[in-house]
Amino acid sequence: MSLFTTIPAGVSGTLDDEVAARAILWLPGIGLLLGAIGGGVVLAVGTLNATGPGRLLGAALAVAVTAVLTGGLHLDGLADTADGLGSRRSADVALEIMRRSDIGPMGVGALVLVLLIQVAAIAAVPRLPLAVAALVIAEVTGRVAVVVATSSPAARPGGFGALVAGRTTKAERALTVGVLACAVASAGLTAGGPALAVRGLAATFAGLLVGWLLQKTARRRLGGMTGDVFGAILQVSAATALVVAALA
């Protein structure tokens, strides 16, 4: 809670390698919490105003609440990663671009487009309860994609990326993905039968696949992971899961 959100957790102490390695495995749980909060916003606004614009407003407010509760941390990572990878420069230069405090045109474009896609996809899910479920799945999937991405080494020393990159085991990563898949399948079967379970799994694995592709791109272009890349993976994976949920 203290590391990944702005929610007061009453925690003090030093963030070292051991603490960060334990905390990263709880990241999907944070996604479940944030997804539930965002889903509550979607449900409340959609109940009060069931029109198309009302659904769009609920989706926008849910995305905004999630951004506030995470302090915009992952959005900043998305923008910086887009600037770095979009520069088409060498790894050293790209990492320096990502380290700067300003945001370039690639970063602004990535932020606008990804947020627009997320809002539109949530609003496009036909039924309100399914839109809530899609948002929860997306928030958790994005964070599971980050756990998967910790299999790659850090691109540079220092920073959050260096604290968690390469710090999880293959068994821990496989268990995280397996728990997510089982939870989505079970919820789908309970709520709507095999067809809904398949659609939920399709959204989940599409998000994980796109996150994995971005991970591979960052490793090839930058030499490994940074905190910014982890944030970008989270946002892009979540957006992909939402798009597939909306189209399904």
Tell me about this structure.
This protein has 248 residues and is mainly alpha-helical. It contains eleven helices and no strands. Helix 2 packs antiparallel against helix 7 and helix 7 runs antiparallel to helix 9. The radius of gyration is 17 Å and the shape is globular. The relative contact order is 0.15. The mean pLDDT is 94.
What fraction of residues sit in β-strands? Answer: under 5%
What is the N-to-C order of secondary-structure elements (H for helix, E for strand)? Answer: HHHHHHHHHHH
**Terminal Cα span:** 32 Å
Q: Quaternary arrangement of the chains shown?
A: single chain
How many beta-strand elements?
Answer: 0
Mean pLDDT: 94
Cα Rg: 17 Å
Shape: globular
| Number of helical elements | 11
Question: Stretches where pLDDT falls below 50 for ≥5 residues?
Answer: none
How can the largest sheet be summarized?
Answer: none
What structural class do helix, strand and pairing data support? mainly alpha
Which percent range fits the helix content? over 70%
Summarize the structure.
With 248 residues, this protein is mainly alpha-helical. The chain has eleven helices and no strands.
Tag the structure with descriptive keywords.
248 residues, mainly alpha, 11 helices
SSE layout and pairings?
Elements lengths: L16 H8 L2 H22 L3 H18 L3 H14 L4 H9 L5 H20 L3 H22 L9 H6 L5 H23 L1 H29 L4 H21 L1
